[in-house]
Amino acid sequence: AARGYAGNVANNTRAMTFGGGNSGMKNEIMFGTIANTGNFADFGDLTTARDQLAGTTSSTRAIYASGSDGASPSSALFNIIDFCTIATTGNAADFGDLTVARMNGGMTGSSTRGMYAGGVNPGANVIDFITIATIKLQVLQIMCMDMLVEEVVVM
Questions:
Q1: pLDDT 10s digits, 108-138
Q2: What predicted TM-score, i.e. pTM, was given to this entire model?
Q3: Which residues pair with 6 in a beta bridge?
Q4: How far apart (Å, rounded) are the C-alpha atoms in residues 67 and 110?
């Protein structure tokens, strides 16, 4: 089904789209095999339906973070981080929480680390990063005006 404001990730084998909204919020995760043509199929569900979220991957895990409930004009923002194993269909599981609830941020990563930065939430000046293989949130807080950098590990 058509949807707007969904997040997307891929590894070398699968492409995935998740969340989004079109006549209501979606909690669906859909996937396609990159080497094949055809439609996307059901992968599973996010822990919470939301849109305007972001994602990143390692070769084995997909990570989905943030989002909103899509209510207008005043959306509730989420600090949720979900993950799933890309090779196995099924529902996402809880990875942890961002330090600040926000939406429309950017997420990127490498084979070991993911970073979520920016987003809409007045006053949020935090970059969250995760170690993708473990369920552990780490925070890099940047105070832009004073150029103070502080790192906090949350277990």
A1: 999 889 999 988 886 678 888 898 887 655 5
A2: 0.83
A3: none
A4: 22
